[in-house]
Amino acid sequence: MVDALIQGLALVLQWNAFSLMLVGMALGFMVGMLPGIGGAATLALMLPFVFKMSPVEAFAFLLGMHSVAATTGDITSILFGVPGEGLSAATVVDGHPMAKQGEAARALGAALMSSLVGAIIGAIALAISIPIVRPLVLTFGSPELFMVTLMGIACITSLSGLDTKTQMKGFAMGFFGLLLATIGQERQSGILRFDFGFTYLWEGLDLIPVLVGIFAIPEIIDLAVRRTAIAGDKPPKLLFAGVWQGIVDTFRHFWLVLRCSLVGVFVGILPGAGGGVAQWMAYAHAVQSAKNAADRSRFGSGDVRGVLGPGAANNSKEGGDLIPTIAFGVPGSGAMAILLGAFLIMGLHPGPDMLTKHLAVTYSMVWTLVLANIIAVLACLALLPYLALVTGIRGGLMIPFLLLLVFVGSYTANRQIADLLVTLGFGAVGFLMVRFGWPRAPLVLGFVLGKLAETYLFISVARYGYSWVTQPLVLVLMVITALVIVFPYIQERRRRAH
Amino acid sequence: MRISAAALFSLALAALAAFAVYKALSWPPKAALFPLVMGIPLLVLAVAQVLVDLREPAAAGEGWRRPLVVFAWMAVFIVLVLLAGFPVAVPLFVFAYLLLESAERWGLALALAAAAWAFFHLLFERLLHFPFDAGLIRDWLTGGGS
């Protein structure tokens, strides 16, 4: 195994593989910064170019691009409140408020450093778990996976709701998100649901326009209303001092970063639950680990821990994602599904072969993850203080450009005018939600998980009837979910008793 | 009694849930299961929220004018894209917004519009070869629909 590890490194360091990785990273850097065009979409766009490459070159190119996109996506999230990636939406929640308070550099430093730590932990997890992960993944059947999705929504709702009043709204939004995911053709029976006669809706709502609308448009409107720069009248602290502080934060909360990285790896491993889920789960975990209600109430208004958690998870997730993709050919996310396409183009079959015959190629992927992230973080750190200055530009100049990014980004989803209308519509919904105090995160998580949750529920019922609820692991997960839901109430009661 | 805007929003959500549940009832069980399992709790929660909202006094509202203006600009942009396609709509929109809405100087608006066009053109058209539709106007001029 050690031989293969070293052999893998040698493969990546060959000059053509390495330079292709750098090209991929440059692309990923830009794509990650631009809202909407996700890493997955870019992977798909770049797939035709890998035909002539060797496997190691192709994966260096694609993975280099993909892992950088996740990191730089956080930059846009923090600076503009517009998720640069579907995967980095959770960073908006605390990162953008920090930028509004003139702490953009610190938030960016924290996001980058935690991303690096996360990526390395993800790569280590990938390296050591490849041989041992198989039995673990296989113990989770559809009933358990359905409960895991519900638990995810319960976590994010119950733990990020500031008080018990908002919690009810959070659950409503979770269900609303799950319901939104049912739009379009039902997979088992072929029935068209809520299509209102539009062929556009047959495939269901696309994630990108919905996400960008809900998160980005309210921020842009807020900027227009305030008539100031993003950082308001607090000029962004230029200087490396802010960035340095963010790096220090990462190590001050190192255990949190570590735990969130592991959350990312684990969620990445679960087939189909990849994408943005890991980040939100990590965010929920960061909130949950707050010491008390007062401590928790800082989240959402610019707490650095709310940046560190998702930052770590969305990079460690890559390592986790690759595990089922390589080991069983079951992609953990949309991006990995596309990467699976690259495997087939290369004539490689995921599965036992990758762990025996092509072990060096597998380990070259591990190394790509590590190297690409280290280089990307160093490059970003050098540029960061200047990027943070953007938050000092007056809003009137920024708004048309932000609107462009938003609409171009969502148009790239399906290339239809309807994408723009969906973005506008969900922008209005998001705006009203913010105004009336409805949390947006549960809606998004529900929407992201909806299709998956429905499939799990369908298989569970088809296979076990309604007795699936009595399976032991399901019961355990149910109890945990219930505890998560009642936890804030207990805490509030305890606080009143004091 | 005046109904607050917040209560109206909750009411709209409840109505949406009720509609979803009503629609789902007419589907075969396979297709109806999930929408019902999610729609019914949503309906209950939203109705509860309406009751909560009605009991609370309407909060002093923030203004609606500015947000509506921005939404109007977004609608303008979409119409521009529809008519002229992205490559034309992008610089046009940046120029119009900067000049009319942000009251910037002519020169600056023009320069930034040009920058937006250049960036857009280089990244999406040259580098990524992203196919953008040309818009209705060109279809009319060339006499062919797409």
Architecture overview:
The complex is a heterodimer of chains A (498) and B (146). Chain A has 498 residues and is mostly helical. Chain A is built from 22 helices and 2 strands. In chain A, helix 4 packs parallel to helix 18. The longest helix of chain A has 30 residues. The model of chain A has no long low-confidence stretch (mean pLDDT 79). The longest helix of chain B is centred in the first third of the chain and has 27 residues. The model of chain B has no long low-confidence stretch (mean pLDDT 85). Chain B is built from 6 helices and no strands.
Q: Total number of β-strand segments of chain B?
A: 0
Give the topology string of chain A: H per helix, E per strand: HHHHHHHHHEEHHHHHHHHHHHHH
**Pair with the most extensive interface?**
A-B, 52 and 61 residues
From the N-terminal CA to the C-terminal CA of chain B, the straight-line distance is: 53 Å
Structural class of the helix and strand makeup of chain A? mainly alpha
Helix content of chain A: over 70%
What is the helix fraction of residues of chain B, given as a range? Answer: over 70%
